[in-house]
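Supplementary notes for students who missed Thursday's class. We covered one full example, reproduced here. Read the sequence, then the structure, then the short commentary at the end.
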Amino acid sequence: SALILTEVLKERDAQLELKRLKELADKELDKDHTKTDRDAYEKSLQADLEKARLCHEAAKRTAEFQMAQIHEHLTSEEKEKLNDLKEGEELKKLAAQFHIEKERLDKMRKEERKMVMKENVQQIEDCKKIKQLREQEQEEEDEECRVFAAAKRKMMQLRAQKEIDIYKDKQARLERIKDKLITKLKQKINDEEDRMCSAVEEIEKKRLEEERAKEEKLLKDIREQAEHRMMQLKNKEEKARREKQEELELLQMRHAADELFRQNENEKCMQRRQNAEQIKNFLIDQYNDHVNKEEEVKKVQLALDRANLELLEKEEEQFQEYARKVIDHCKEKGRNVYPLERAAQKGVGGPPFAGKSVNRSDYLVSDKSGKQLPHYEGDSTSQTKLQINGKGASKNRLGFMW
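Structure (token representation):
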């Protein structure tokens, strides 16, 4: 045991001496490496901070833009809903006005039909009355003619009887003046016949004029009735044509309103599709940018890891060269170099990178996920041993001080 302790102490003294010599020999090189590592670390730290700041600002802007888009989308939806409600109310008002106007037109048509029916009935009654009046007038005229003829016959009979009586009474005393009276009587009879003929002609003329006036009045009434009927039919046809034209115009307006509503709905649908497509493209672009940024970060990280690996390889070469010199020197001095050779061997993995909180590249997996396997002795293991065993010099692992 004393011999082992002596060898260990000698070996440790030799290691300390070699460390001092190495520190003196490689002081400038260590300073350059340290400065380079510090600068690289500071640059990488600044770059990481700048990237984190930019990512945070980009995420903040993206969130603000998305919130603005959501607010705008909600506002546009509210406006569309209000516009739809307004259009619906207007359509309801138009429909109500249309129904009211239609009911009014139906009522006017019914009233007009009733009026036309009433006028037709009145016209038929007027025709019947006119016919009755004509028949009555004809009967009155026939009665007047019969009365006139009877009166004339009676008057002639009375006159003839009177003349006969006068002739019989005066026959005796008029025999003497028979010749004179015959002449005068003939003259008187002729005058009376002329007067009677004139009266009959005047009465007949008056009757013909009255009949002509009645016929003209009747024809005038019939003509006026026909004109009135034609005017009524013409007005009715014109009114029906106007109503049909109004109905066609109203139907066209309704079709135009339906077409306008359909176009508005199509435009709204197309606008919603375009907005959805724009949002989709924007999200796809955001995702692609995020993926590209992650790829860039991974590429930068891999490049940094490759640089660290190259630096570790150089350090390993220097360490192996240094270890070989130490082992050869110890062999020349007759020391047991087995612990040194074992410590100098390249084991599985190693300690974390200097200035980084990740493991060495020996523990990186082969895929591009960037995952790392645990090394044989990590920080948690050392912390556990320190808590259990305490901080003792005899518990430290013997080897090179590098």
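Commentary. Residues 109-277 form one domain. Residues 347-363, 394-402 have pLDDT under 50 and may be disordered. If anything here is unclear, bring it to office hours.
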